[in-house]
Write a structure and sequence with these properties.
Layout (H helix, E strand, L loop, with lengths): L4 E5 L6 E5 L2 E3 L2 E3 L5 H4 L10 E7 L5 E7 L7 E7 L1 E8 L10 E7 L4 E5 L3 E7 L4 E7 L8 E3 L20 H4 L10
Antiparallel strand pairs: 1-2, 2-10, 3-4, 5-12, 6-11, 6-13, 7-10, 7-12, 8-9, 8-11
């Protein structure tokens, strides 16, 4: 058992919810966002190739659903540092027992929850508050030519977004519906 993380398995094989354990005293607290050794138990066995931080200004905004095509697929460890999001992983692995099923979790600084998303999954989130800051650990560097995506509002997925979808990038709005994919 990990000293710094509670590991909770989700209905999607490989997608893991992690509760970070804070250690503190009268000065405040410390929490570990990433530890390759401790996260082996949760299924993380890749290098940490890239760390990213995002700020999303408006409540209701959706970013995603993104993934990388082989051989550039990536695992992600996602945490919310400020605000609140509904974070979603969609199984994009043909032949998987949970192909095209999704799992969502509310991530906040207060609930100290991260989501580990293995290769083969699309990822996205909806901001539930203004000014949301997210932190990502990626197992592979971003490869623009290998980028893929699916529409967050695709009826074939039926993702239960908590809010009406607000802002999205033009790129995210133009991802194909599953029935229109040529991949």
């Amino acid at each position: 058992m990990s000293a710094r993380f509670d590991i909770l398995h989700t209905p999607l094989d490989g997608v893991v919810s992690l509760r970070r354990k804070r250690m503190g005293d009268e000065r405040g607290w410390l929490e570990r966002l990433f530890c390759a050794e401790e996260l082996k138990e949760a299924g993380w066995h890749w290098p940490a190739a890239q760390l990213n931080r995002t700020l999303t200004a408006k409540r209701g905004t959706v970013r995603g659903m993104h993934f990388q095509h082989p051989p550039h697929e990536e695992a992600k460890l996602v945490a919310c540092l400020s605000g609140e999001v509904f974070d979603v992983a969609v199984d994009m692995r043909p032949g998987s027992a949970t192909y095209l099923r999704w799992h969502g979790e509310r991530l906040t600084n207060e609930n100290a929850t991260s989501l580990l998303i293995p290769p083969g999954f699309a990822h996205g989130f909806q901001t539930l508050t203004d000014n949301v800051e997210m932190f990502y650990v990626h197992s592979a560097p971003f490869a623009p030519g290998a980028e893929g995506g699916i529409r967050a509002d695709d009826p074939a997925l039926g993702i239960g977004w908590p809010l009406e979808i607000g802002e999205r990038s033009e790129r995210d709005r133009s991802h194909p519906l599953l029935g229109d994919r040529k991949e």
